[in-house]
Amino acid sequence: MKTTRICYYLKIVVSVELLLTLVAWTQISNLHPLWMQLLAFPYLPILDLITIVVWLACRKLRDRST
Fold it and tell me: Is this model's pTM higher than 0.90 or not?
């Protein structure tokens, strides 16, 4: 039960991060300077990859428990 809840939250985080990455890549010239700092290119894709890997591992654990 706890694993399912964690996977659900991670799925939301992955969706938001991927959306932010797309916005950063398509609207980079229109963003406020604060957003430019928060969405620094070397860090956001790495954070996306880490979150996706954790989410996939969580999903695999959930599949094993059923």
Answer: no
